[in-house]
Amino acid sequence: ELACRYLGTIESTVSKLNLTVTELEKFLISCQSRVAIATTDVAKLVDEIVRHHRRRIRAAKINVLISSDGSIPFHTDIITFRTILSHLIANALLYQDKKKAHKTVLVTITMKENHCKVEVKDNGKGIHADLLPHIFDLFFNRKPAPGTYGVGLYICRQQTLSLGGSLSVTSTYG
Q1: What's the CA gap between 33 and 146, in Å, rounded?
Q2: How do strand 103-112 and strand 74-77 relate by DSSP bridges?
Q3: Of 144, 142, 139, which is closest to residue 23 (Cα–Cα)?
Q4: DSSP letter at 135?
Q5: Does the model's pTM come out above 0.90?
Q6: Closest by CA position to 57, among listed 16, 5, 87, 94
Q7: E strands along the chain, which residues?
Q8: Is 131 helix (H, G, I), strand (E, B) or coil?
Q9: What is the mean pLDDT of residues 116-127?
């Protein structure tokens, strides 16, 4: 019985590592390939990503709000942009404060002519100030959760830079 539990744990861990390696492979391939610019509706894209996480959202009783100032077409590499938004939203969902009765993630989209600003805010515990400079470092993991290896935010930063954008974080611990 104990051996079966250990084998199950090993199998689960290997599966999660395989997903991480797959994400890194996709990232490396996207870095080497040409950017394919297309037009997207950012609010619709965010909505699709949120729907993808609906089981996690329901299970954790998280209130996800999407705010957009309109439907201005945005020209970008949709695959890369989707990857960035997916990681940011997944992090906001994953690192919620489980003790809070009202867990919230707010995604705010502000569109300008050739510019898109997406803010992902949550009411989780926050990050200590001394850790903030490191959250985009490869393999940095402030509080390891099952299946996390510290590559998501690194990929977000690199992909954002590849699109000519910027990525920043503000956080207050507590």
Answers
A1: 31
A2: unpaired
A3: 139
A4: T
A5: no
A6: 94
A7: 37-40, 62-68, 74-77, 103-112, 115-122
A8: coil
A9: 92
